[in-house]
Amino acid sequence: MQGLKPYQPGKPIDELAREFNLNPKDIIKLASNENPMGPSQKALDAIKEGLADLTRYPDGNGFELKTTLSDKLRVKTGQITLGNGSSDILEFIVKCFVSEGDEVIVSQHAFAIYGLLTNTVCSQKWPAATVCRFQLKTGGMTSMPWPRQ
Fold it and tell me: How far is CA 68 from the centre of its chain?
C-alpha cells in the first residue's frame, strides 16, 4: 500500500487556460475521459426518466441489460460480464488470472489502473518501457530479465 501513488487527475480547463494564457472556450479536453460536446439528448432523457427510481438499488446482476445484449449479440446471458466501467472488469480479470507470486508486465504508458490492480494481487510487476512511436515493442518484453524462469 505504501508504494501506491494517489491518482493525479488531469488539469481543469480553467487552470490550463490560466497557465498557458488561453481562452477556456478554445480548449478541447480529451485526456480525462471528458466529452467536449456534453451529453446527448437521449442520455439526458434517460437520466430524467430514471430520477424517480434514484432511491432504489439497481439490479446488481443487470438482468434486463444482459437479456437485451444477449438477444442483440446472439450470445447467452452467462457469457456477458457487466461492471462499473472498464476498471471493474479489469479487476475481475486480474483476480481470476493473477495470483500472489505471479509476475506481470505492464507498459509504462498503459492505463494507470493496470499497475494498480496488479499491485493488489501480485508481488512483482515489471515495467515494459520499450515504447517507440506509441507502440509497445513485444521483443523488449520477451527479453526482460525474469527472476523466475
Answer: 24
b vs e for 93-129, b when ≥16 Cβ sit within 10 Å of the residue's Cβ?
ebeeebeeeeebbbbeeeeebbbbbbbebbeebeebe
* Strand stretches in 8-147, DSSP E: 103-107, 124-128, 131-132, 135-136
Phi (first) and psi of residue 89, to 5 degrees: -65, -40
Nearest alpha-carbon partner for 110 in 141, 82, 131, 84: 131
Look up cell 434514484; give the residue.
54
**pLDDT tens track, the chain, 149 positions:** 566 667 777 788 899 999 999 999 998 887 767 777 889 999 999 999 999 998 998 888 999 999 999 999 999 999 999 988 888 898 888 888 888 777 777 777 777 788 888 877 765 665 555 455 556 666 666 666 655 54
